[in-house]
Amino acid sequence: MHDLQAAFERWSSAPYPPCPAGIAHVDLVMLDAVAASTLGKWLRGAAAASTEYRLRTLLGTLDDQVLADASGACPAYFEALADVLRLALTAERNA
Question: For residues 13 and 22, what is the distance between their CA atoms, to the nearest angstrom?
């Protein structure tokens, strides 16, 4: 859990990079906001099946659409987010 908390803090304190409004028909600002809200709930112990499903969905969107088409400063930021999501899901499986 410590690794997840540290990764979440690194990602959430990173400045949002200059990105286009959307990549591959994904609203990046909305994706970022939903990820932050969902991860925040998860870290506060509100893990539920719906939270895990949302984490998996966000990770799928990142891997399949955003990271495949991102360029410039966007990939590093969203790769860090994907890493946090993977850590959260791994922690859930190991709990």
Answer: 21
Chain mean position to CA 6: 14
CB contact set of 71 (below 8 Å; sequence gap of 6+): none
Token output for 10: 């690194």
Which residue is listed with tokens 């200059």?
A: 18
Q: Exposed, middle or buried, 84 (CB in 10 Å: 0-12/13-18/19+)?
A: buried
Backbone angles phi, psi at 23, to 5 degrees: -130, 130
**Comparing 59-63, 70-74, 91-95, which segment has the lowest mean pLDDT?**
91-95
Tokens of 3: 């690794």
Global model pTM greater than 0.85: no
Give the pLDDT mean for 75-90. 88
- Mean pLDDT (whole number) for 37-48: 79
